[in-house]
C-alpha cells in the first residue's frame, strides 16, 4: 500500500511480523550452533572433539547474546515514548556485535543522551554498513550537520550495497517488502521520523551511509 507521498506504508501488524522475522533470522545461526555443540557433547566421548564443541558453544552463546542486546535497542521499544538513550550504550553494543578480527570500528560520536529513535537509526545504519563489507574492513561512525545527523563509512574489499537498498531507504521499493528487505525499509522509517534524509553511496571499496 502507498501513502499520500507515494511511499510504501506497511500495516502495523505486517511491520511487527517482518521485524520479528528479521530478529529470528539473526538468531538462528548462533542458536543452531549451540544445539549442535550440545549434541556433540552428548554423543561423542573423544576429548578433542568435546573441547571443540565447548568452544563452539561458548562462542555461539556470546554471539547470540550480542545480537539479542543489539536487536533489543535497534528494533525494540527501548523505554517509554520520548525516552532517550545514551550513545555510549550504542557504541558498546555495536563493538560487541561487529568488532572482531575482521572488522574494526572508529567511533567519534560524543557520549550523551539522544532521542531513542535517533539512536535506533544509527544502529540500523550500522547494520547496513556492516553488511556492505562482507569480507571485513573498517566502520567509521561520525557526527555530521552539527551533531544532528550521522555518517557511517564502511571500507573493505568488495564493499557494495544491494541494488534495492537505496529504494528501500527512500520507502519506494519496486518489490513487496519481505523479511529480507524490512531492515533497510525500517531504517528509512526511522530517518523520516527523526526529520533526517538518508543517502547511501558505494564507490570503489567504500560505502557511505549518511543521515542529515
* Molecular shape: globular
Largest beta sheet: strand ordering: 2-4-5-7-6
Which assembly state applies to the chains in this document? Answer: single chain
Q: Any idea of the CATH topology? A: Heat Shock Protein 90
Q: What's the number of helices?
A: 6
Mean pLDDT: 91
Which CATH class is shown?
Answer: Alpha Beta
- What would you call the structural class? alpha+beta
Main β-sheet: number of strands, strand sense, barrel status? Answer: 5 strands, mixed
Hey, roughly how much beta strand do the residues contain?
15-25%
What is the end-to-end distance?
27 Å
Report the CATH architecture: 2-Layer Sandwich
The tally of domains stands at: 1
> How much helix is in the residues?
40-55%
Give, in order, the helices and strands. Answer: HHEHEEHEEHHEE
Number of strands: 7
Low-confidence stretches: none
CATH superfamily: Histidine kinase-like ATPase, C-terminal domain
As a whole number of angstroms, the C-alpha radius of gyration is 19 Å
Could you please describe the fold and organization of this structure?
By secondary structure, the protein is of the alpha+beta class. It has one domain (12-211): Heat Shock Protein 90 (2-Layer Sandwich), CATH 3.30.565. It has helices at 12-43, 47-75, 87-98, 116-131, 165-170, 182-193, and strands at residues 84-86, 103-107, 113-115, 137-144, 149-155, 198-203, 206-211. Helix 1 (12-43) packs antiparallel against helix 2 (47-75), helix 2 packs antiparallel against helix 3 and helix 3 packs parallel to helix 4 (116-131). The longest helix has 32 residues, at 12-43.
